[in-house]
Amino acid sequence: MPADALEIPLERVLGAKTARALTRAYAVRTVGDLLSLFPRRYAHRGELTPIRLLHPSEQVTIVAEVVETREREMRARHGKITEARITDGHGFLTLTFFNQPWRTAELQPGARGVFSGRIGEYRGSLQLAHPDYELFAAEPADTADAAEASTIDEAAEDQADAWARQPLPIYPATSTLPSWKTANSIAVVLEGLADLPELLPDDVRRRHRLLDRRAAFEAVHRPKDDGQLRRGLRAVRFEEAYVLQTALLRQRAELEAQHAEAFPHLPGGMVDELDEHLPFDLTAGQRDVGETISAELSQASPMNRLLQGEVGSGKTLVALRAMLQVADGAGQAALIAPTEVLATQHLASLHGMLGHDLWQRLMPQLITGSLPAAQRRHAALAVASGRSRLIVGTHALLSDSTQFENLALVVVDEQHRFGVEQREALKAKGVQHPHVLMLTATPIPRTVAMTVFGDLDISSLHELPAGRRPVASFVVPLSEKPAWIERVWQRLAEEVEKGRQGYIVAPFIDDAEVGTAGATSASGVDTAIGAPGMSAQRWSVDRVLRVLADHPATRHLRVAALHGRMKPEEREQVMRDYVERRLDVLVATTVIEVGVNVPNASAMVVFDADRFGVAQLHQLRGRVGRGEHPSLALFVTTAAEGTPTRARIDAVANTTDGFELAELDLSLRREGDVLGATQSGSRSQLRALQVTRDAKIIEQAREAAHEQLQAGEPLPDALERAIRAAVTETDEHYLSAS
């Protein structure tokens, strides 16, 4: 194979039929793609799924030995059935083949191999009908010569020992492409694979004791023992981390080399004026982060910073101070929010902090899609002429009708809710490269930050401003305490009686969406099921509304629904009524997860809490406790005690530390979920690397990549090719758009 062996199309090596099957199953097209299809796990013989634990309809791969093989006539139609009974030492399973008599010769008693297929059931016994299988090499046969027999016995014993110790790669399997077929294809590719150009500098490989690329692929796909496997996995993980970190750090350096307008802090300017008139003191964290941002805005290179912080930690105030610093220098600042509700609330919040004098000087404008045409034209003119220095809006800011006189700072709230193209489109409206500040209320674990946001500077706010009350959180376990559902309705009513308001969140909008609707009593008990609180029916907004209307404790409450199927103007009206206290309870889906700020709300009830992730539950809880009143969050679930799902909900109830919960969330989520947020401009899926496990490797690779880039030498061609292969066009755009 040539030097660029990894780029060779699979059909040239494996043939068109096999290549097409692999492409359909795994979207792999080249030798490099296939070799980067790493096993999803490894097992030793006998450590695969035990036969005694198999269940019907499971797609399984097992290692077993043939005990007996027999043939019998079919009763209903002409032909014979070949049956082979196999065992893994813990249970028995029958392999069934129809009109394939040659299987008897292959599946002789004593033969061992890998068997793959979907478990079926026949007359109470489990079976595999027409399974795929691969038999292992037979042990040497006996011979009459005693000396030779002794030698052969020793060889057979050595072979059996090596066979038992050798890790067995298990690849993702489909009904047409079992794990062993993928392994065979990879073996063919490895047999013809020449030495590969190295991506890592020699001193890096020596320092970290890494296998070369060719040896690493061999060790990962065909390991002889666990030690070789560990060395191979470490090498491919380090290499993947190195490629990604090189791309991130190089992009960061290119961004820093771009030119932006400098906006030094103006003594006695609007920032100082705001600080003097605030009715509270900035937290230490707000001051520290503010100083960092102020210094970066003073430079002629663009700021590119992500500010993460707890719900209610004061990120908006930090952003406002940055916007005022830009406005002091005759620049414009735009804050883009994902929803009209949030944009409107941001503008109201800014009005409350700025006061009349600053408001008149800045002439803030709101630009959203639902604004009346005349109002939209007035706002657009104020922005285009430069009379407005502070602009708040939604995606409407991205339209051609919105033009800026001198856009110098872009603030993106809830940055994960915006696509790459949207963020870039707003930045492109600046005369020069604008400064960028992205905000998120979902704390990001350090390993994710290094891997996904490695080209950004990151600041964190841990403190809550004075006056914020922690939210008392409780799990309502209907599986063990079904009667507690009554207490939920009572507690909600009690909060309203105190003059407070509440939220109820359900995962579905209506019963049709749930798909298992049933009659409910006034307490919310499914009468068709008959067991209080143990309804098979999930909760919907409609179901909650019915219960609230019928239940004696809540039927007098002023209630409204809020969900994504409503028209924007309907949602706006409901939120306005809630903010202005014309409603007691808002029954909603997760549309209220971010950006809803009602200080008078003191109760949050989340039904079917097991349907939501850790971050979502924490965000939903953050909708209450935003004022001076004691608040509570009730997580209602039928998840049984002792299950992982219940443990997740219990963990959220036991702490309000979002950073601690972020680490928990990371440990619970699948790796694809960590990096696969397409709204954010997803990185390509990591192949061997896992941010949940490989923090040390990522740190070491980042340090090594930084050293190489600092040396100023051109990157090797092989590394450039690897960066292009590992980072898709979308990802490259993400890197440049970040």
Q: Which percent band covers the strand fraction?
A: 15-25%
CATH architecture of the largest domain: 3-Layer(aba) Sandwich
How many alpha or pi helices?
27
Question: What coarse outline follows from CA principal-axis ratios?
Answer: globular
CATH hierarchy, class of the largest domain: Alpha Beta
Helix/strand class: alpha/beta
Number of domains: 4
What is the first-to-last residue Cα distance?
Answer: 38 Å
Counted beta strands: 21
Please bin the fraction of helical residues: 40-55%
Largest sheet: 7 strands, parallel
- The neighbouring-strand order within the major sheet is 11-12-10-13-14-9-15
Spans of 5+ residues with little confidence (pLDDT < 50)? 139-153, 516-536, 670-684, 729-738
| Cα-atom radius of gyration | 31 Å
Q: CATH superfamily membership of the largest domain, which one?
A: P-loop containing nucleotide triphosphate hydrolases
Mean of all residue-level pLDDT scores: 82
3D architecture notes:
The longest helix has 31 residues, at 226-256. The protein has 27 helices and 21 strands. The protein has 738 residues and is of the alpha/beta class. Helix 16 (446-452) packs across helix 25. The chain has four domains: 45-164, OB fold (Dihydrolipoamide Acetyltransferase, E2P); 241-257 and 689-737, no CATH class; 270-461, P-loop containing nucleotide triphosphate hydrolases (Rossmann fold); 471-655, Rossmann fold. Residues 139-153, 516-536, 670-684 and 729-738 have low confidence and may be disordered. The strands form four sheets. The protein has a seven-stranded parallel beta sheet, sandwiched between helices. Strands 16-21-20-17-19-18 form a six-stranded parallel beta sheet, sandwiched between helices. The radius of gyration is 31 Å and the shape is globular. Strand 3 (80-87) and strand 4 (92-98) form a beta hairpin.
